[in-house]
Amino acid sequence: MYLSLLKESLLHLIFPHVCLGCASDLAQGGQLLCLRCLGGLPVTSFHAHAGNPVEKIFWGRLPLELATAHFYFTRGSVVQHLLHELKYRGHREAGHFLGRQMGQALAATPRFDGIDGLVPLPLFGEKERQRGFNQSALLCAAMADVLGKPVWPGVLVRTSYTDSQTKKSRVDRWQNMEGRFALAGGERLAGRHVLLVDDVITTGATLEAGGRALLQVPGLRLSIAALCFSSNT
Q: Where in the chain is the domain with CATH 3.40.50.2020?
């Protein structure tokens, strides 16, 4: 046991474990955040409440069963840093961590008990090949492990490349995403309650476009879950 502790200490000196939120030293490997950063994550609790702000985004736009986002998104926050680590530095464990957080929240409320499976919002094929992964698919995989539900990748495809939505107006975002998604083998989702998953929701234009494509499946019931809710439009 002494040798094991010595080995761990030496490895820690050579490859120090630091919090992805504040860069402080972590005592144990396998952790991403210190207790202070973990406890300070801006959880919305939307999953537990009907008529929450994410559900209101889609009122009159999509016939949803449920909708939620797990964290509030703010510039310079720990959540933004974790997303940056995931999307632009390929830190997949950040995606697994965030997906588990989402899954645990949904598992804690009976509102989402009726979900049959999860569908990740797809990237355009070339963009996914460049990045090496789809962040929404990573979130789905971790959520599915917690919820004990299947993931149905590939049933929703993005048919063309789209520019970043960040600097577009609300109307331009809707127009930019119209008709950008299509079904591929969606018949297996007939009569199912599907949870469509993405990383960030602002105006809901991208999720609306993906949701419209899924709702072409006969009898499909649709819910939405995003990792973060941003009010910056």
A: 42-229
pTM here?
A: 0.85
Rounded CA separation 188/218 (Å): 10
pLDDT tens profile 93-128: 999 999 999 999 999 999 999 999 999 999 987 877
* Residues shown for the chain: 233
Give CA separation, 84 vs 46, 158, 225, in Å: 23, 22, 19
Contact 33, 20 (CB under 8 A): yes
Report how far residue 136's alpha carbon sits from residue 140's, in angstroms, rounded to the nearest whole number: 6
CATH number for the domain running over 42-229: 3.40.50.2020
